[in-house]
Amino acid sequence: MRLMPFASGSDALARFVNVLLALVLSITVLYFGRDLFILLVVSGLFAFLLLPFARRMERWMPRWAGALVATLALVVVVLGLFFFLGYQLTRFGSDFPALQERFASKGEAFFDWVEGRTNLDRREQIQWFNAHLSDVANLGGQAALRLFSGTGTALASIVPIPFFVFLLLLLKDRFRVFFTRLGTTREGAVLDVMVRISVLSRKYLRGVVNVGVVFGALCSIGFGLIGLKYAVLLGFVLALLNVVPYIGALVGSVLPVFVALVTNDSPWHAAAALGVVLIVQFLDNNLITPKVVGSSVSINPLASMLALIGFGALWGVAGMLLAIPITGMLKVVCDSVPSLKPWGYLLGEEIETPEEKRFHIRFKRPPSETKP
Q1: Mean pLDDT throughout 71-91?
Q2: Could you tell me if 200 and 296 are in contact, meaning their C-beta atoms sit under 8 angstroms apart?
Q3: Domain boundaries, given as residue ranges, for the chain
Q4: Are 289 and 206 contacting, i.e. CB atoms less than 8 angstroms apart?
Q5: pTM of the entire structure?
Q6: pLDDT digits (tens, 9 = 90+) for 4-38
Q7: Separation CA 332–CA 329 (nearest Å)
Q8: How many CA atoms lie within 13 A of 102 on its CB side?
């Protein structure tokens, strides 16, 4: 009888070691196989999004033709978005020399302002900037090199996505049979989880696209009303950055302020640009996203931030873009497996449960203690 606590402690330690080993191995596989996993996740999300459209097409044509039409529709939409942003960028590129001159003149005015309020003359300021900006330039060059190399890798990984989407749509019935046969607790258990994941992914992607269009349109209209140049380009660039929660909005708010400072002499113009971003962000957080996206991915802010940091460390920018839908899928799995339901509850943002209410009532101070 005295050996029982030791045995139970050994079993608990063994379970902990096994869980820790499985976690380390999973993270290692996700890191070294990131290109394949990103390709599969992105292709799966698009396949879930196009699944109803492909089924409707199959009513009038063969299965392979319906999958092909749905995939081509996706390619046309994505290429149209790239051409739209490319057209806006060509306007920005044509004005780039003039922007350089205005930026140089702003720099001269800044040097004069610093010289008028400090004891540093122009030569000392230039020496200070040259001494400190050399390291920044080196870091910028390294970042640019990584960016261009990463861009080439990203483009190389984007090319196979339409082929994977086509194959996933073509073999959807085979996957349905596979998940049905995979059920262990009851017939179709795994299939039910996959159907819920499919519905969640579809609602999330539709919501993100609709929010992006509304967000970009509102920003473009606001920038146009205050007379900010490149209003449409800045508006939809901010909409793309807004896909990354929290971080994208913070980074995106700097761009219109910088453009306003370079293209206009009044600091109030930059303040107005920042005001437009803040107003649209307020509308997005409190009205647009809750109404359009709704509760398709009910993840609490703490889980969202941890997912962004974790997947960002594993897969870079692509991981940050995919962090929320992947976490939403994990929550669906946790909610469907009885032993993992506590983890699903921890990830979610559901309303207060009866257990929480009893906990609050139990630990609430008596009225006598709350009086001064």
Answers
A1: 83
A2: yes
A3: 33-170
A4: no
A5: 0.73
A6: 454 455 777 777 788 789 888 988 998 898 888 98
A7: 5
A8: 13
